[in-house]
């Protein structure tokens, strides 16, 4: 644990790796002197997200990030935008308001309802209000209980660390050996953006022609380097294009082994029209809650991409005219995956 004190500006009193036992932490807390100034909590939250919870300052990958923000009265700046970025970065904000604004003081507040705008979720679990400074000690036990309930720390999940992603790769004859390597590079570039481990995002892949084969399942590789090496080793198959059967196979062989607490993402890459029906398998995927991205290249049919893709198709279907342009789609796919994740309701 560490402490940040804020007034006009925030400053780290000590960071996550400064002290290794509670005795030293207590001694360090007693040495803190008051800075004075305003109550710029928004600025403090922004600082905590960008600086305090950095790897350099001792942040450990696997541990949930929790910020307990205390404010006297109300913040003197806005917290909404800084708090949104904190949530999207995986920081669970608990907000303690001490001696909050009385009815006639509310007119001075920059942001009414600031605590709800700051917290990880607006369900009451993350907010505590304290009538006066003398009763602050009473919040210690309830707060500790909540912070330790890691299963309920909803903001630990981000768009990059909480999915099972299944790549469905067209290996038909029209692709060719050289373009197939480009497709694998695209799969690797997308995978590289995620935090990969058995508790974070997991990656699986299958290849299809008329037939289908599982290249590797979600539980096979637990580190990013292992996943990237496995993608490199995928061999080109060559054959026809049965996209419908491939989607069906992905649901059975890949996504059946998906964890219930993970978002299921299917990323299908094809370069041509399917020889079989795609409508029913696509509907089945959507019905099973698999968010499907369809990436078409060269001779792929836009109408089919739109059917395969999750609604709205404009956010989930992409087309590039040649394989060498696949890399351009990577940032857009990542952006849309994250926008969709971050727009989930917060109650």
UniProtKB/TrEMBL annotation:
Matching Gene3D superfamilies: von Willebrand factor, type A domain
PROSITE patterns associated with the record: VWFA (PS50234)
Alphabetized Pfam families for the sequence: VWA
Occurrences of domain VWFA (ranges): 1-147, 164-333
Top-level lineage group: Eukaryota
InterPro entries documented for this protein: ECM_Assembly_Org, VWF_A, vWFA_dom_sf
SUPFAM superfamilies: vWA-like
Matches recorded under PANTHER family: COLLAGEN ALPHA, PH DOMAIN-CONTAINING PROTEIN
Protein name: Vitrin
Organism this protein belongs to: Bos mutus grunniens (Wild yak)
């Amino acid at each position: 644990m560490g402490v940040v004190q804020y007034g006009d500006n925030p400053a780290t009193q000590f960071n996550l790796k400064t002290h290794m036992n509670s005795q030293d932490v207590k001694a360090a807390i007693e040495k803190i002197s008051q800075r004075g100034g305003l109550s710029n909590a928004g600025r403090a939250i922004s600082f905590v997200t960008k600086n305090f919870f950095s790897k350099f300052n001792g942040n450990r990958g696997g541990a949930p990030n929790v910020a307990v923000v205390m404010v006297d009265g109300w913040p003197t700046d806005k917290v909404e935008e800084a708090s949104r970025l904190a949530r999207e970065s995986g920081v669970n904000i608990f907000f303690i308001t001490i001696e909050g604004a009385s009815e006639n003081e509310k007119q001075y507040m920059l942001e009414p309802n600031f605590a709800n705008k700051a917290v990880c979720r607006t369900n009451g679990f993350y907010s505590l209000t304290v009538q006066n400074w003398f009763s602050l000690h009473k919040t210690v036990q309830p707060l500790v209980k909540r912070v330790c309930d890691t299963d309920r720390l909803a903001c630990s999940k981000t768009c990059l660390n909480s999915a099972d992603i299944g790549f469905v790769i067209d290996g038909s004859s029209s692709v060719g050996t050289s373009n197939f390597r480009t497709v694998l590079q695209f799969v690797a570039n997308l995978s590289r953006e995620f935090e990969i481990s058995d508790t974070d995002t997991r990656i699986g892949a299958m290849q299809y022609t008329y037939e289908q084969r599982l290249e590797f399942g979600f539980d096979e590789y637990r580190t990013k380097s292992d996943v990237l090496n496995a993608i490199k080793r995928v061999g080109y198959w060559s054959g026809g294009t049965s996209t419908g059967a491939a989607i069906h196979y992905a649901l059975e062989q890949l996504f059946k082994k998906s964890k219930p607490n993970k978002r299921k993402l299917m990323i299908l890459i094809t370069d041509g029209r399917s020889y079989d029906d795609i409508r029913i398998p696509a509907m089945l995927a959507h019905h099973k809650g698999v968010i499907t991205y369809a990436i078409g290249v060269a001779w792929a049919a836009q109408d089919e991409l739109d059917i395969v893709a999750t609604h709205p198709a404009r956010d989930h279907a992409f087309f590039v005219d040649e394989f060498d342009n696949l890399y351009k789609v990577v940032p857009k796919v990542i952006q849309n995956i994250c926008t969709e994740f971050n727009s989930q309701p917060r109650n």
